[in-house]
Write a structure and sequence with these properties.
Blueprint: H1 2-28, H2 32-39, E1 46-47, E2 52-54, E3 59-60, E4 70-75, H3 81-97, E5 104-108, H4 120-130, E6 136-138, H5 144-148, E7 152-153, E8 155-162, E9 165-172, H6 188-197, E10 212-213
C-alpha cells in the first residue's frame, strides 16, 4: 500500500510538471503583439500613435502629419552627454529628410523627479537654444517609451506608413560614433531612410543603442 501511494504521488508530480511545461510553451508561442507590448517593438511591428505635449504647449500626434511617409522617432533628453553629442546630427536628419516625408519626432522619456535637467521648462529652453526644427515632446506618465522599448537616450525607431499603420523598420543607434561625427563610418539611420525612399531593403535593421539609461520614476 505504501509503495502504491508513492507511485501515485510520483504520477501527480509528473502530471503537474507536464502541465507547467505546456503552459510555458503556450506563453512563449503567444501572439507577436502581446510579446511586443511587454518587451518593446520588433522590426515589422505596428507602432502605436500617441498624443504628447510639445515644447510649444500643443499636443502632437503622428496622425497630425498627413503628408508624412514615415517618422524618425528619437527618444532623447537634455542632460545625457550622448544625447547632447547627437543633437546636431538629429537636427540634420530632420532638415535632410522632413522634406522627403520622414520628419524627426523627438520624445523625452525621462522622469524629471529623477533627473531635474530633463524637466519640461528645461526642454523648452533647450529647444530654443538649439533651434530644434522638430517636435520635442515629453512622455508624461512614462507610458510611451515602454511600448516602443526605448532603453537609452538617444534611441531611434524608424517608422514607415503602410496601409494607415506605422510599421517599425529600424531600431537602434543613429550611427557608429557618438564622440565625433567626422569619424562616423556607418550611418545607420540615414542608410535606413535612404533605403525606404528608394523602396529598397534595409541592410541593417537593428543596432545597439548607445546612450544613457532612461530615468524611470521610482
Amino acid at each position: 500500500m505504501k509503495n502504491l501511494k508513492i507511485l501515485m504521488m510520483s504520477l501527480l508530480v509528473g502530471l503537474g510538471l507536464l502541465s507547467f511545461t505546456s503552459v510555458s510553451k503556450d506563453e512563449n508561442g503567444d501572439s507577436k503583439h502581446r510579446t511586443s507590448s511587454a518587451k518593446g517593438y520588433e522590426i515589422g511591428d505596428e507602432a502605436t500613435d500617441f498624443k504628447l505635449k510639445n515644447v510649444d504647449g500643443k499636443m502632437v500626434s503622428l496622425s497630425d502629419f498627413k503628408s508624412a511617409k514615415g517618422f524618425i522617432v528619437v527618444f532623447t533628453c537634455n542632460h545625457c552627454p550622448y544625447a547632447k553629442k547627437y543633437e546636431d546630427r538629429i537636427i540634420e536628419l530632420d532638415k535632410k529628410y522632413k522634406s522627403q516625408g520622414y520628419p524627426v519626432i523627438a520624445i523625452n522619456p525621462n522622469d524629471p523627479a529623477v533627473q531635474p535637467e530633463d524637466g519640461y521648462k528645461q526642454m523648452i529652453d533647450r529647444a530654443k537654444q538649439k533651434s530644434f526644427s522638430f517636435p520635442y515632446m515629453v512622455d508624461e506618465g512614462q507610458k510611451i517609451f515602454p511600448l516602443y522599448g526605448a532603453t537609452k537616450t538617444p534611441h531611434v525607431f524608424l517608422l514607415q506608413k503602410e496601409n494607415g499603420k506605422n510599421i517599425v523598420k529600424y531600431i537602434g543607434a543613429i550611427d557608429n560614433n557618438y564622440e565625433n561625427p567626422n569619424d562616423v563610418s556607418e550611418y545607420y539611420v540615414q542608410d535606413a531612410v535612404n533605403a525606404l525612399i528608394k523602396n529598397e531593403p534595409i541592410k541593417m535593421t537593428k543596432t545597439v543603442a548607445i546612450g544613457c539609461t532612461v530615468k524611470v520614476k521610482k
